[in-house]
Structure formats: structure tokens, C-alpha cells
């Protein structure tokens, strides 16, 4: 080994070691679980640490990206892989910037793990922020890349969404990087079509997934209907639309249309605590019946994406069923807490399409009037610009709530939005804890309190609820 | 959407809402409709998009913002409507043009690829996107409106294009915090007759009900100039207490406080 090589190795070990210390410190002093800070410290000491980690992980890496469903889908993929592989690494707490990947690696090492690093039967599943995908994939060369969907989110950070889509496509044309073995792409989202196209042109195995059931399509009255455009400039037409701009689409002038999905949900039944899905595989090898213990269409898409990703990894969809059926909500995403006979359910929603789907799920599947607490914060992780609430369909809450409370640093904007939608607000206050108590007081035993919140509100409420029922407030 | 065609309704044209809505500018139309309900005014709302014809007349016109691609898509169609919109602007029809729509309501706009799009000359201004860097003007804005009585206007801006006003143009507001039209001259937006161009979303109407009311009043006056039998009690009701007014004022004050605190 050269002097440079030894120097790099020492620097790497030092970076990992100090990162680990930072993690322990932040956990002891309870600074947000320390999921990001350890990666930050390690990256500061060794800037190209991701390449070194990537070598240790021997390219058995899956990246999951998209506007909505990253955490849920990554969690499903990890669980499926865990049923076949000794050790699966993931950034399951949703820390998904470049440093989050490093943090995940560091936290997977035990105290003594700096010495006995695992090198056998290892796979990694990382959810990766939309904007970080180009740089991180050129450094880590993942074997499989999963693209879920793309819609407006945190435009104060990203600028415009078209530039995100083209940066993804361009990341495959860079000469310096090793192309992935497989792409997994949502065929229903026309904004992702260029990825399917680039995958096929580069002879990358491309597995697509989608829906085919008119019973779960949006009706025309659902507002927020926007036009989307094909690369040729003409607008996209829809035979059926499922959520946002996703559906059975075709260009209104050229011959581009939704490719036939390889993993296709042919029947979907949405219920108040679960969904039934019938999945047909392109090779017609099998029709699978699944029960998903999550609500709403996004979770159906997540399941299709996870099955497809595992398939790309070599696990047949039939072998994923057991894991899918036993999976429940993850870290603040439809996660349930039960105490004093009151069920509290946290829904993360931080962009218009995500919130629209949550509101649709709540109003369509609820058996009784809703107990609803909405929380809007404007920290960097939530998105500083809260304009998007005017794109969400609060109008469908009309006469569906037993009570509606608003909270978060932007509670005043939220209650104004509800007022404009003609929805009466029971109470509004920026103090989340006092509104949580207000909402819990008004939720009767055996009823459910639904809390729909942006990211930092979710963290705060989750910690409080976890403390009350005595479980770890952090992702272990 | 259209509720009534009786002479006592205000005709609203919302342009390209299905295309130009990147920062949720349709919130302006929603706020307008909620305010109309509160004031007891009928609105006759026309959603006009690409290929649709403008109605023969209107009292209030709304247009929002979009990305380069969406601006490319609407530019040609907007030009075909340009003459009508210009004549409306001269005839004191109320207008609110936000961000990308504001740029296209000027003389011309050069986008990030260096391509020139012809505007419709409602406003005497030009807009240029620098092609040499990716600088975007993003963040909270607090400004003081040049229009008498409107006072503080708050909002959020996010634009790459920089707008420069011509000699005859009057800025809509002076920037206190934020970038405004171009980040250099502390102007925000433009004001001509009953027309306002601005970079503020948020959406701008809900948090600044006084701006909504000002344009609404102009729209009502325009309707009265067409047929003189409008019930003037509406204008009096505007200054009375209202739930929407209270909530909007509360939001506007909290936003100003929070933004000022952050700026230290």
C-alpha cells in the first residue's frame, strides 16, 4: 500500500471513529437522534468517504428517490432483503442527504464495530433526496436505482421541478460513472418517462410499475388538476388519473404513452386500515394477492416499487408477499400510537400531492367524522415556503370533521387556508403541545385522532407520543 | 364555476390556471371567491386556458407563474389575447399578474436559455434571466406598497428572471426585506391603472386582503362604469369586520414579525 493509501485509510478510520463519537454524544444529549450529525462530522474529516464506504459495500447498493414515499418504500425493500440477506444497511430514519448515507453506515457499527467491520452478505438500501441523486450516484455507483414519482416539493430549495428531472436523466449520460444494473421506474408518472427512455437506450434493465383499476381513479371534480407536458411540447392526456399527474397517460400529439408496466396492480380496494391489491407480472408467471396494512394509494405504489426493486435484485415477487403483508407504518408515516384507549395516527404530508392523497384517504375511508389536527411548520426540512397549501384540496374536508385544529409555526396560514376553503376551524395555536393536548382531550376512547403534519412537526409529536407510551423516540 | 350571469356579478378571468400555477397562485382565485361570499357579491369566474377565447368583457383578470417550459407554452397563446388585455388595462379592468405571468405582461422576457419571448405590453418593463449563473431570488419579502392605504405587503418570492421597469412604470412596492424585481433597485412589481404585477406568491391575496379588496373595489367600479346599477353597500361592507379580514391581518402581522426577527 502506498503512503497515500495508508494516509487515506487512517483518515477514513478517524472519520468513522469521530463520527461515531458525535453520534453517541448527540444521543446522550438528545439532539435529534444524531442521525445527520455523525455523517456531517465524518464527511468533514474525509470528504470522499462515500466512495470508500461504497467499496466496502461492494456496490450492493439500492437508491430510492422521488417526492413521496421514499422512506416507506426503502423500509419495505430493506425488510424484503433482510429475509434473504444477513445484513441490510439503510438510512431508515429518513436522513437522506449525502451525509445521511454516511451516518447510516456509522450507526450500523457497534461500539467495537470500528475493528470488526462486516464484509459478508451485505446489501444497502438508501433513500436519497431528489436533489442529491446525481452527485451521490456518481460517487457510489448503486446497483439499482428506484424512481417513485416527481412533483412540487420544497421549491425554495430545488427551484423548478423540470431541472430535477433533467438532472436525473443527465446523471446517466456522464461518462465517469458506472451505470446501474437496473432501474425501477413508476410508469404512471409521465415526468419519469425520460428515465425509462434513457434506461432502455443504455441497455439498463428497466422494471416499470403502475396501476390499472378505474375504481380508484380520481374523478374530475378533484381540484388541483394540472396539465403536464410531453417532451415534444404537447400536453399529456389521461385515460385514467390516480394521483397528481400519475395515471394511464399518453401524449396528445406524438406516439409516446405510458409503457405497459412490468408489475401491474390490476385491482385495488382501499379500506380504513388496509388495502387489497392484485398484482399481475409482465411475464405472466403469477398473479399475486396482497393485503397491505397501510392506507391510501401512495402505499400501494410503494409496495409495487418495493416488489419491483426486490425483483431487480433477484427476489421473485412471490417471495416478497409475506414481508409486505406484515409491514406496518414507519417512523411517522401512518404510524399509530395507542394509549388510554385512544388511537393516534401520524400522517406525514409536506407537499400538495402528498397532502391531497392523505386528505383523500382520510375522507374516503373514514367510517365516522374525523378528529383532525393539522400541523404546518416552516423549518428548512419542511420547506420555508408554505405557498403550496393553496394547491392542496382542503375543500374536501367540508362537513367531514368532528373537530379540526391547526398548529405549527404557520398555524395562522393554515387556519386562513381552511377559512378560505369554507372549513370551520375549532382552534388554532402555534404551540404544538397545547394543540396536541386539545385534540387528545376531544378524542373519545375508541376513536382515532389523525395528525397530519410536516416533517419537523412529525418529529416533535412523535417524540412526545413515544415518551408518553414509553418507547424510543428515535429511530433505533 | 360560473354562478350567475345577472348584471350584478363581477366577471373574473383566471388565465392558464392549469399551466401557470407553480407556486400555487390559484390561491388568489380561491381567496377572491371566499371574499366574494363574505361580501355577498356574485362572481362569474371564467377559467381561460390555451386555445380558449376570452369572454367579451371582464372586470378582474388573474394570471400566475410558471417554469420556463410553461412560459414557452403559454407565450404564443397569450400574444393572441394581448390586444384585448391591453385594451382592458387601459379601460381600468383590475388585473393581478404574478411572477411568470407578470414577466409576460411586460414588453419582453429573456429566459434561462437566452430565448426571447415577446410580452403583451400591459406593463412597461422587461425581464431577463441571467444565463451565466443559477442565481435565484428566493425568500420572504416585506414591502411597502406605493398604492395609498395598502401599507405593508408580505409574500414569498422565487424567481430567476430579473425585471427592470421602464421610465413610465411605477413600482407596486418598495422592498424592505427581500430582493423584489431584480435585487438591485429595491422595487417590487409594477402598478398601472387598476393593474398590479408582482413577484409575490404565498399566495399574495390571502395574506394581504387589503390588496385583494383594492383590486376587488376597482373591479366593482369597472362593472359600475358598464352598468350603473351595482349595490354600493358592498363597498361599505369591505371596511367592516370580517372573519377573513381578521385572519388575514393576523397572518400578515405574524409573518412580518417572524421575517423581521429572522433578519435581526
What is the topology?
The complex is a heterodimer of chains A (476) and B (264).
Chain A: H1 3-28, H2 37-45, H3 49-56, E1 61-65, H4 70-82, E2 87-90, H5 98-108, E3 122-127, H6 133-140, E4 144-147, H7 155-158, H8 161-170, E5 182-186, H9 193-201, E6 205-211, E7 236-243, E8 246-251, E9 263-270, E10 275-281, E11 287-292, H10 297-313, H11 321-326, E12 335-339, E13 342-348, H12 352-365, E14 370-375, E15 401-407, H13 411-420, E16 427-429, H14 432-441, E17 448-453, H15 455-469
Parallel strand pairs in A: 1-3, 1-4, 2-3, 4-5, 5-6, 6-9, 13-17, 14-15, 14-17, 15-16
Antiparallel strand pairs in A: 7-8, 9-10, 10-11, 12-13
Chain B: E1 9-15, H1 26-39, E2 42-48, E3 60-63, H2 68-90, E4 94-98, H3 100-104, E5 108-110, E6 116-118, E7 125-128, E8 137-145, E9 152-159, E10 162-165, E11 173-177, E12 187-188, E13 190-192, E14 195-198, H4 204-207, H5 209-226, H6 233-238, H7 243-262
Parallel strand pairs in B: 1-2, 1-3, 3-4, 4-14, 5-7
Antiparallel strand pairs in B: 5-6, 7-10, 8-9, 8-11, 11-12, 13-14
